[in-house]
């Protein structure tokens, strides 16, 4: 009897909370309801403001149980904004699993827009929890529905699905095998394994760009020698073919990926491996066929990069985009020929965030793109990202922010056994320290330096 009463009350609460999001479908009620909330927040103290924010998040989470798609979409937008603008540690501690599985349910029953919103929320959830058991759970629970959605989803939703898979693997992948699994899933989007009843669908330029960028983002976390050499060579050949495509974003994404591959020295490593694993032809001093092929492909790529660094503007070519491409490929050419990586620096709360390697550049641009307007906030407060980039915010900010943290958040930051502190050690082991730190590329083409 007690359980029935509790279930009834929960149902009433969910219906009441969902009604708030449904009412926003009516334009006439939007301004009045938002004004009421604004007035309410303006007269509350800090503690009460936090309670109000938590209440709105609870209401949004309840609305994800509703049948009406537009209601779920509005709720996901609300959650996305909340996670973008603040690190919701206390909410995540209590509602982590419920939020994850409601977002995953959107993959099965939602529109392309709802799927895209759910992908963004799942990625933000992973970035909020940082490395640890929860991030690993997000990855393992999400991979099956993500894989299925990538096979059946629309072109627009595939882009969000690829980026979501990249972020949750970047945070939650515990070993190279898990990361390579996600990279293979991404690869299948443009190179599907065809069965007797499967028809190949040519991916759009936008999907190819998203796949290559997401794949490269994950490649930054793996030592090149741990990947299958045969798969690696096929990847290089495919990326080389993309440099000849008409779409500029595809060419830029492929160029970045190839720069990363050259940076981690995989061409040379595979050449050495090929010598030692041949059928014995190397014993007389001759070079195996694999070595010759790789060197030939390397020369071809350098020539392609040289041409793109000096490409003349074509019909309808935007000058800004053309200059961005030229600048990028000049940097890639300089790296291929002289070993110099492009350097970059941006200010976060007055502190410089610098990069000087291709892998850091790719990580930074991908996360800037994914977080959008929430990037600066996360860089200031998210210790997982501090560890990724070796970035330390100003002490003044940390002291001021300490007073704004809830008791739960303070525990998470201070405890030596916290997920955040464990993440620091794990991530430092995971990150490959090739040189020092850098920043240009596909996602940075239209972005300038940001100041908090």
Automatic annotation (TrEMBL):
Residues annotated as domain Interferon-related developmental regulator C-terminal: 382-435
Give me the segments passing through the membrane. none
Alphabetized SUPFAM superfamilies for the sequence: ARM repeat
Q: Which domain of life is it from?
A: Eukaryota
Note the coiled coil stretches, chain numbering. none
Q: Where is the Interferon-related developmental regulator N-terminal domain?
A: 31-337
* InterPro entries from the UniProt entry: ARM-like, ARM-type_fold, IFRD, Interferon-rel_develop_reg_C, Interferon-rel_develop_reg_N
Region annotation Disordered: residue ranges? 1-41
Member of which family? Belongs to the IFRD family.
- Protein name as annotated: Uncharacterized protein LOC107433737 isoform X1
Which species is this UniProt entry from?
Ziziphus jujuba (Chinese jujube)
Provide the organism lineage as a comma list.
Answer: Eukaryota, Viridiplantae, Streptophyta, Embryophyta, Tracheophyta
């Amino acid at each position: 009897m007690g359980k029935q009463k509790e279930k009834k009350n929960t149902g009433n609460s969910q219906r009441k909370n969902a009604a708030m999001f449904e009412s926003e479908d009516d334009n006439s009620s939007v301004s009045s309801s938002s004004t009421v909330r604004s007035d309410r927040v303006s007269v509350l103290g800090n503690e009460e403001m936090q309670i109000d924010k938590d209440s709105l998040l609870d209401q949004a989470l309840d609305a994800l149980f509703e049948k009406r798609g537009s209601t779920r979409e509005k709720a996901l937008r609300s959650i996305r904004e909340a996670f973008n603008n603040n690190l919701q540690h206390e909410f995540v501690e209590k509602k982590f699993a419920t939020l994850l599985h409601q977002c995953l349910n959107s993959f099965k029953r939602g529109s392309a827009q709802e799927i895209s919103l759910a992908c963004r929320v799942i990625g933000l959830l992973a970035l909020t929890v940082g490395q640890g058991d929860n991030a690993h759970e997000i990855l393992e629970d999400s991979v099956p529905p993500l894989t299925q959605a990538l096979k059946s989803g629309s072109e627009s939703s595939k882009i969000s699905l690829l980026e979501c898979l990249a972020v949750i693997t970047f945070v939650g992948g515990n070993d190279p095998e898990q990361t390579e699994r996600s990279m293979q899933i991404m690869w299948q989007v443009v190179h599907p394994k065809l069965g007797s009843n499967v028809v190949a669908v040519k991916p759009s330029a936008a999907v190819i760009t998203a796949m290559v960028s997401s794949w490269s983002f994950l490649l930054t976390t793996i030592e090149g020698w741990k990947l299958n050499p045969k798969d690696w060579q096929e990847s290089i050949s495919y990326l080389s073919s993309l440099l000849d495509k008409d779409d500029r974003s595809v060419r830029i994404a492929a160029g970045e990926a190839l720069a990363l591959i050259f940076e981690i020295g995989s061409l040379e490593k595979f050449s050495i491996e090929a010598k030692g694993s041949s059928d014995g032809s190397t014993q007389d001093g001759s070079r195996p066929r694999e070595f010759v092929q790789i060197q030939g492909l390397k020369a071809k790529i350098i020539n392609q990069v040289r041409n793109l660094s000096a490409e003349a503007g074509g019909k309808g070519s935007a000058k800004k985009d053309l200059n961005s491409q030229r600048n990028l490929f000049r940097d890639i050419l300089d790296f291929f020929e002289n070993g110099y990586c492009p350097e970059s620096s941006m200010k976060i709360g007055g502190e410089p965030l610098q990069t000087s390697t291709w892998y850091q550049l790719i990580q930074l641009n991908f996360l800037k793109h994914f977080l959008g307007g929430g990037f600066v906030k996360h860089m200031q407060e998210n210790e997982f990202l501090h560890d990724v980039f070796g970035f330390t915010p100003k002490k003044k900010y940390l002291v001021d922010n300490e007073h704004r943290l809830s008791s739960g958040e303070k525990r998470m930051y201070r405890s030596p056994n916290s997920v955040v502190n464990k993440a620091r050690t794990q991530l430092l082991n995971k990150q490959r320290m090739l040189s020092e730190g850098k920043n240009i590329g596909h996602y940075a083409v239209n972005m300038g330096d940001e100041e908090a």
